[in-house]
Design a protein that fits this description.
Oligomer: heterodimer
Number of helices of chain B: 0
Structural class of chain B: mainly beta
Helix content of chain B: under 10%
Structural class of chain A: mainly beta
Largest sheet of chain B: 5 strands, mixed
Strand content of chain A: over 45%
Distance between the termini of chain B: 37 Å
Strand order of the largest sheet of chain B: 1-9-8-3-4
Shape of chain A: globular
Order of helices and strands of chain B: EEEEEEEEE
Strand content of chain B: over 45%
Number of strands of chain B: 9
Shape of chain B: globular
Largest interface: A-B, 25 and 21 residues
Radius of gyration of chain B: 13 Å
Number of helices of chain A: 0
Largest sheet of chain A: 7 strands, mixed
Number of strands of chain A: 11
Chain lengths: 117, 112
């Protein structure tokens, strides 16, 4: 079984450009989470989505950042008008649950490293 | 989510058991204890989780005290590839509150 796939692995953008980061969850997982890790820092939660819905976006910056998880296709984290401070590793995770209360662990991808020049 | 406290760093000799402690004194009854690790530049890797019983899998064992206020992750025969940052996290299993909140973890170094 394929794990969480993120692409691209490395992305270089100039200041002011847009960055699009893609995440394909584990097959059958309907929950997706995005995290950001600045150099030499810990992982910070950004947003949690369940198919077509944003459940928790308490960690998302209010401007320039958006996320979606459409019914078909990967989840996308979009950063508009990037600035140098956006340079970081962005990790995606997925999980699944059922109405019986089962919750699976989060499984993480290997991240996209965004460099803004 | 309840907060966890871990030592910032630990060393362990290769081939010995690595015992990583975690305090979670404010854990509530519906919160699970999860352990993840992050090997340099990779995504966090799930290790194990439990509610109140001790758990074991192919990677590690998790010992949770009877009062659930602390736990220990045991890597039975540490190898150099176990060098990583280890995170102890408590997570509630309620819809809408599924995320993991990472702390600073324990940097485990396996010494040859």
């Amino acid at each position: 079984n394929a794990g969480v796939m993120q692409n691209p692995r490395h992305l270089v953008r100039r200041r002011g450009q847009e960055a699009r980061l893609r995440c394909s969850p584990v097959k059958g997982h309907s929950h997706v989470y995005w995290y950001r890790q600045l150099p030499e820092e810990g992982l910070k939660f950004m947003v949690y989505l369940q198919k077509e819905n944003i459940i928790d976006e308490s960690g998302m910056p209010k401007e320039r950042f958006s996320a979606e998880f459409p019914k078909e296709g990967p989840s996308i984290l979009r950063i508009q008008q990037v600035v140098r401070g956006d340079s970081a590793a962005y990790f995606c995770a997925s999980s699944h649950s059922n109405t019986g209360g089962f919750r699976s662990p989060l499984h993480f991808g290997n991240g996209t490293r965004l460099t803004v020049t | 989510d309840a907060k966890t406290t871990q030592p910032p760093s630990m060393d362990c000799a290769e081939g010995r058991a690595a015992n990583l402690p975690c305090n979670h004194s404010t854990i509530s009854g519906n919160e699970y204890v999860y352990w993840y690790r992050q090997i340099h530049s990779q995504g966090p890797q799930y290790i194990i989780h439990g509610l109140k019983n001790n758990e074991t899998n192919e990677m590690a064992s998790l010992i949770i005290t009877e009062d659930r206020k602390s736990s220990t992750l045991i890597l039975p025969h540490a190898t150099l590839r176990d060098t990583a940052v280890y995170y102890c996290i408590v997570r509630v299993h309620n819809f809408g509150n599924e995320k993991l909140t990472f702390g600073t973890g324990t940097r485990l170094t396996i010494i040859p």
